[in-house]
């Protein structure tokens, strides 16, 4: 796991966008895993800027989102499909239908989840997964207790996650759906490069477990310690509880530029 502690969101956006830009140069038809939430917004903003400046194109790329609420109407502004369209997809030049997400309105949930796994596999797997982390250590919507070997499936949201997300539903806890579909931990682990972003002191405990804790289903993100290529982009506040923060800073400063992330 490479830990990069950066001064602010803008620096996170810039370095994250560099990783996507490098990938698209190497592989214009890359498969990108897209996360919703506030954490990746700086990366999406920077990518949209670079697209406007003709620096990169998503015309041949494909995307898969991580998760979706169950039962939200298709036109609900907080369905993750609509959120990712607004925050990123509609701002660049993905081809129509090139970005898919789990179907939270499917009649046959199990078939929809299996079909989603198949679609990712048919696309050749995810090259770069952009990821956030919940305050309870969830990635995607894999809440504490999730199987470390899980694939896309239905999950019940914890009360904490529903409280965290109530701000998107007019601060009304009951308006936050109780269930979701999410890529599993094993699905996320299949991505070739994982780029996880966390900012703010509210994430410091989750980051502490993610990077320096024991691998445990109680802190689902810790499974990433078994992944060969994970980059964690943090601001100082999110890195606030890391025992080896100075070491990570020195290591990154001394890293040859050609290595990239
Ligand atoms: C939600 C999403 C996750 C996201 C997490 C953190 O629960 N399902 O994918 O990582 O929230 O969100 P934020 O980045 O807004 O803190």
Automatic annotation (TrEMBL):
Taxonomic classification? Bacteria, Bacillati, Actinomycetota, Actinomycetes, Pseudonocardiales
Q: Which HAMAP family match?
A: GlcN6P_deamin
SUPFAM superfamilies linked? NagB/RpiA/CoA transferase-like
The entry sums up its family as follows: Belongs to the glucosamine/galactosamine-6-phosphate isomerase family. NagB subfamily.
**Organism for this UniProt entry:** Pseudonocardia charpentierae
Gene3D superfamilies membership: 3.40.50.1360
- Write down the chemical reaction(s) this protein catalyses: alpha-D-glucosamine 6-phosphate + H2O = beta-D-fructose 6-phosphate + NH4(+)
Give EC number(s), comma-separated: 3.5.99.6
Glucosamine/galactosamine-6-phosphate isomerase domain: which residues?
17-226
Protein name, per record: Glucosamine-6-phosphate deaminase
